[in-house]
């Protein structure tokens, strides 16, 4: 009489089922001890309202990546980074529109030869950085790959990590998630206060002085224009100098010289007339 066979307990069945349905994405990858961060180069616009600049992971993946491997940048909202599942094929790579629905996407695929260990030779013109969100027209271009580097839609904050994938799209290694990266947030036009009562005293004084100077300059211009063109509006009286052709002579008044009286001559003896014949014998 044989012993009855023991049926597997519920715990054993759960372990077997869990092993069968355990997703391959949960398989632990090789963790590279590197944390992405904003570039340390002294540059303007390292972080803007739609972009931020990361330092390149140079000499970080050399011992892990091969010629056929691709290094991807994973961008996620800070509160959605813990829910990100590494894709298992190239078809599962999330494109930029997934950021607004799932809170994450992948972009900037790089090969190992694009991340040299040497410092750039061209100075600041070849700064080794990765600018996230630097391609504003990528979504409008139909020939652009779906994992384009479009400007970020909100201030965030965001977290990023680098993911190493082979030619089939299977993940091989990954870095740590970065610290939260918040973008610069500009003011909305409607929130800008234009009421002069809210301005500082110095600004009001400077504005008043500039307005006064502008008024004085306008008055000076009008006075100069009036003086210049007044001769065209009101013609002057004839000057004392007489203008005859190109000759200019003065007119002298002789009223101070008394007129001389002409001598009285007898009738008939005017100059130029013949004397009258005498009537005496």
From TrEMBL:
What are the record keywords, sorted?
Membrane, Signal, Transmembrane, Transmembrane helix
GO cellular component term of the entry, any = membrane
From the UniProt annotation, give the residues forming the signal peptide.
Answer: 1-28
Q: Carries keyword Transmembrane?
A: yes
Top-rank taxon of the source lineage equals Eukaryota
Transmembrane ranges, per UniProt, are 203-234
Q: Write down the InterPro entries for this protein, in alphabetical order.
A: Uroplakin-3
Q: What is this protein called?
A: Uroplakin-3b isoform X1
- Organism name: Zalophus californianus (California sealion)
Its lineage reads: Eukaryota, Metazoa, Chordata, Craniata, Vertebrata
């Amino acid at each position: 009489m044989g012993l009855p066979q023991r049926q597997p307990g519920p715990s054993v069945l759960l372990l077997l089922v869990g092993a069968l349905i355990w997703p391959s994405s949960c398989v632990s990858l090789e963790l590279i001890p590197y944390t992405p961060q904003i570039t340390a180069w002294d540059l303007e616009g390292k972080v803007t309202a739609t972009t931020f600049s990361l330092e390149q992971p140079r000499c970080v993946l050399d011992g892990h990546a091969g010629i056929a491997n691709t290094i991807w940048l994973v961008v996620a909202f800070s509160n959605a980074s813990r829910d990100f599942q590494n894709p298992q094929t190239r078809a599962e790579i999330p494109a930029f529109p997934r950021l607004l629905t799932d809170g994450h996407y992948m972009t900037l695929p790089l090969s190992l030869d694009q991340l040299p260990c040497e410092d750039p030779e061209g100075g600041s013109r070849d700064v080794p950085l990765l600018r996230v969100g630097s391609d504003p027209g990528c979504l409008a271009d139909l020939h652009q790959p779906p994992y384009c580097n479009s400007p970020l839609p909100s201030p965030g904050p965001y977290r990023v990590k680098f993911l190493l994938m082979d030619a089939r799209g299977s993940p091989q290694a990954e870095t740590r998630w970065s610290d939260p990266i918040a973008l610069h947030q500009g003011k909305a036009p409607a929130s800008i206060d234009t009421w002069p009562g809210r301005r500082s005293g110095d600004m009001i004084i400077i504005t008043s002085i500039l307005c006064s100077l502008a008024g004085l300059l306008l008055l000076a211009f009008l006075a100069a224009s009036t003086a210049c063109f007044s001769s065209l509006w009101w013609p002057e009286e004839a000057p004392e100098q007489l203008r005859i052709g190109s000759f200019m002579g003065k007119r002298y008044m002789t009223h101070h010289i008394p007129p001389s009286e002409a001598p009285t001559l007898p009738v008939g003896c005017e100059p130029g007339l013949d004397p009258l014949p005498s009537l005496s014998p």
